[in-house]
Write a structure and sequence with these properties.
This protein has about 160 residues and is mostly helical. The protein is built from 7 helices and no strands. It is globular, with a radius of gyration of 15 Å.
């Protein structure tokens, strides 16, 4: 991973931690925070693409954002109570960074991130929820999406 990508990964990680705290407490991902995450990634990745002589990476970033965001938007349309709107919006910057890091391997990387997010949520959050509340409580999915994306980007 080149230094510019490491800076973008650090930016993403810091914002994922902040968003995770808010989501776990309030079951809400604030639009200004998600927008700041995306704006920072776009600026950092544009600088990395230009300085590294690989402007095509920005195309993959756009495709990754559209794919991950579009996939979760479709899930939200089909099952509105199954996925929050904040999760759909968070998928855009996460997909952007996955696409930028993975390049042409973005479809596999995005799907890997989504599967990992589901597994993380099942392993770490669902058992405790079932013991305390049954299925009636909502599940904060943003932290798990973020953790999975950070993992996928760091190995892409």
């Amino acid at each position: 991973m080149d230094p510019a990508q490491a800076v973008a990964l650090a930016w993403m990680t810091v914002w994922i931690v902040a968003l995770s705290v808010v989501d776990l407490r309030n079951r809400h991902l604030p639009d200004p925070m998600v927008a700041t995450l995306l704006a920072g990634l776009v600026v950092l990745d544009a600088a990395a693409a230009v300085s590294g002589g690989r402007p095509g990476s920005l195309l993959w970033a756009c495709v990754g954002a559209l794919m991950y965001g579009g996939l979760l938007f479709t899930v939200r349309l089909l099952a509105p109570s199954g996925l929050g709107g904040g999760d759909v919006k968070l998928a855009v910057p996460l997909g952007w960074q996955i696409g930028f890091a993975a390049g042409s391997g973005f479809p596999t990387a995005v799907l890997t991130a989504l599967v990992l997010a589901c597994l993380f949520a099942l392993v770490w959050q669902v058992p405790g929820r079932l013991r305390r509340h049954g299925w009636s409580q909502t599940l904060a999915f943003g932290p798990w999406m973020g953790a999975a994306a950070v993992l996928v980007v760091s190995i892409a």
